[in-house]
């Protein structure tokens, strides 16, 4: 399936403004083309200028993994989960890395427990979280799927009502965790706050789910 983005235009936008969040799209496009070195450069620059952007941080963690820089990948995933424990993709990816390492059993158990706490209906971590290009490195390699084939887990999760905010909804939408975002909107709707905004977000999500 071809890209919907004009790579040259994306490169121009990014080169003109390193603060632009378009770096995540450009990095993803490079990853799809297996141009990992360029993806690394773009994502590193983007993260330097947007250190709080969790989407870019996750993509950079995946690129580090493709380059077999496991510790750097784990460090970024840990940062994401410290900032946003409900990030399902980061949680699953770090679990898969720890499983492949066959050590740090305490860390592995902790992440699995947190996965089950936040996503009680998700079940056991699946190997298919990462499943596309081989790293062509050492025997203990991890396969990382490319953005266009990224598996979108549909999971129900329970959260503390105090954590339910429109900011959380926006983060989940950005991560394409649409089902989870709808759950948070349901919680907010029961509180009776920002009903107009909730309706707008729900309509937006429903349109994205139909695409």
If you had to describe this structure to a student in words, what would you say it looks like?
The protein has ten helices and no strands. It is mostly helical and 211 residues long. The longest helix has 16 residues, at 195-210. The model is unreliable at 126-140 and 147-156 (pLDDT under 50).
Topology:
Layout: H1 7-16, H2 23-32, H3 36-49, H4 54-66, H5 70-83, H6 88-101, H7 105-118, H8 166-174, H9 178-191, H10 195-210
Helix pairs in contact: 1-2, 2-3, 2-4, 3-4, 4-5, 5-6, 6-7, 8-9, 9-10
Helix content: 55-70%
Q: What does the oligomeric state look like here?
A: single chain
CATH topology of the largest domain: Serine Threonine Protein Phosphatase 5, Tetratricopeptide repeat
**What is the alpha-carbon Rg in Å?**
18 Å
The count of helical stretches stands at: 10
Main sheet: strands, sense, barrel: none
Low-confidence stretches: 126-140, 147-156
Which superfamily, in CATH terms, is the homologous superfamily of the largest domain?
Tetratricopeptide repeat domain
Q: What characteristic shape results from the CA principal axes? A: globular
CATH class of the largest domain: Mainly Alpha
- Mean pLDDT, to the nearest integer, reads 79
SS-based structural class?
A: mainly alpha
Q: From the coordinates shown, what is the CATH architecture of the largest domain?
A: Alpha Horseshoe
End-to-end CA span: 15 Å
Strand residues, percent: under 5%
Task: Count structural domains.
Answer: 2
| Total number of strands | 0
N to C succession of SSEs: HHHHHHHHHH
């Amino acid at each position: 399936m071809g890209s919907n983005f004009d790579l040259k235009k994306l490169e121009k936008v990014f080169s003109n403004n390193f603060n632009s969040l378009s770096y995540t799209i450009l990095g993803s496009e490079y990853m799809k083309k297996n141009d990992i070195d360029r993806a690394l450069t773009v994502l590193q620059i983007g993260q330097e200028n947007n250190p709080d952007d969790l989407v870019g941080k996750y993509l950079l963690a995946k690129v580090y993994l493709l380059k077999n820089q496991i510790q750097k990948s784990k460090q970024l995933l840990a940062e994401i989960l410290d900032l946003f424990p409900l990030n399902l993709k980061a949680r699953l990816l770090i679990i898969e890395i720890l499983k492949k390492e066959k050590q740090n059993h305490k860390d592995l158990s902790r992440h699995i427990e947190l996965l089950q706490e936040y996503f009680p209906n998700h079940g056991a971590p699946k190997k298919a979280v990462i499943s596309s290009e081989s790293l062509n490195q050492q025997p203990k390699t991890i396969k990382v799927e490319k953005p266009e084939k990224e598996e979108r887990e549909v999971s129900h999760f329970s959260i503390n009502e105090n954590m339910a905010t429109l900011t959380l909804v926006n983060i989940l939408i950005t991560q394409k965790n649409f089902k989870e975002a709808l759950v948070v909107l349901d919680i907010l709707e029961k509180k009776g706050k920002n009903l107009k905004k909730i309706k707008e977000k729900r309509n937006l999500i429903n349109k994205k789910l139909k695409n």
